[in-house]
Amino acid sequence: MKLPSNVVIAAASGVFLVIAGGALILASVLCTNADAAATQPAAVAVAAKPESSKDPAAGQDTSGFVPDESAPALSAGPDGTPEPYWLLKQREARERLLRSSGETGSVGIQATGGGSATRTLPAGGSASGSPAAAVPGTRTVAAGGQTPLAGIWGGTAAELSAYLLASNPRPRFSVPALTLAQYYVRYAGQVGLRADVLWAQMLHETGFGAYGGDVTAAQNNYAGIGATGGGTAGITFATAEDGVKAHVAHLAAYVFTDDRAPWTNPAVDPRYDAVSPRGVARVLADLDGRWAVPGNGYGATIERHVAALNP
């Protein structure tokens, strides 16, 4: 049989690829005996698969998600590829911890915000100087609420998101779980706090994003800031990013005596100055009776999630 000039057939292992006029048709022949060879091949058209709007890592539909337009542009990483701003700031915080190890008050860092303004921050000021576990890339977990709060976590935002989604595939956050996790890794890294600890605290406070208590999902309040019980809903933040920054700033007030970034202030966390005295928390158990009242076992409960995040 003579085929039209615009038809090409390629055959391999009983599978025929027929290209006709730019269209791809997949035809297969299943032969179980000699007589079956005469069977007409069944043709199946292969349609182009549309790109999914679902974020596979976050497990949520991101078709309507609009990134924060105020976020800084990506800078070039060590290998020449674009580097996220949060990773750049995490590296700065990591270098800061290295330089200030064993020293007090002699090292500073230029902290750069979303715009061009910079501010030199003083070094030191943690509740107990330089905790042994406050090292870059830490995944150390203690017991009895003794896991340190300061340090740079060695994991990824994808790990945080996956742990949450394994228990609750449909959290009620205003952004995808992976986006929320990226905010935590970014801002925790900027101030030298562990993102896994902050994320674990968020899971505890929000019920893995299911809520159901005094605070609602629409408030973007991930740590119960201002929620004192008895129906008091606490503070509402305009965006998820604002809520994460407030959470990180609030914990920073408990851990450090100095302002760790241009955004660790009462403008971002309305309860920032309510933390008094500053720098009283070194490990998770130090939050018992402070972040939560009476708070018996509060830090140890959060620590169980931290341990699961660092197998």
What does this structure look like?
There is one protein chain. The protein has 311 residues and is α+β, with helices and mostly antiparallel strands. The radius of gyration is 26 Å and the shape is globular. Helix 2 packs across helix 3 (177-191) and helix 3 crosses helix 4 (195-206). It has 6 helices and 10 strands; from the N terminus they run E-E-E-E-E-E-E-E-H-E-E-H-H-H-H-H. It has 2 domains: 7-45, no CATH class; 60-309, no CATH class. Strands 1-2-3-4 form a 4-stranded antiparallel β-sheet, with no helix packed on it. A two-stranded antiparallel sheet has the order 5-6. Mean pLDDT is 71; it is low at 6-86 and 101-135. It has helices spanning 85-100, 157-167, 177-191, 195-206, 240-255, 298-309; strands at 7-12, 15-20, 23-28, 42-45, 54-55, 60-61, 75-76, 82-83, 109-112, 118-121.
